[in-house]
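Person: Please work through this fold.
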Amino acid sequence: MKKYLAVYKELHEKKRYGTSSERMFRKFASCIPRDITSLLDYGSGQSTLASIIKKERQHIKEADSYDPAVKGRDKFPEKEYDFVTCTDMLEHVPEEELAETLDKLYTVADRGFFMIACSEAREVLPNGENAHCLVKPPKWWKEKIEEKWEITGTCQPLHSGNRIAWTVKRKAS
């Protein structure tokens, strides 16, 4: 996200952005395990998803948000969580930075939920480019995710032609 970091910071300063997970939480709530006590919302934007999940799942003691473009959420956590959510974020990462981002996700949790848009966004960045700089078909995303993660489930009804939604677990290295 380094390539677009300044542009996303500018966008977040101008408006409330990155909140799709709040609207969709009910649709993917069943994909979040009940045996976890800590969670990181990676690439959270300005979403309150971590707080929503913690309130809904009272057994979760710690729920944090990380986004390099949002002030106050821009410090990468130096600890491990039981679960990581990454909703509508990976398509914002330039292809040349994707491996590094997936490596970071791999370090923070054994299990997770990834939701990825496979089409252009309605949002246009301040630099005139589409907010989704990495629009690829589901098969391409599956291959990239499976380099580090095992896909353990498909989350319906979010998994469709233009959006993929998977639960994952870390592959043994």
Observations:
- The mean pLDDT is 87.
- The beta strands are 38-42, 62-66, 81-87, 109-117, 149-154, 163-170.
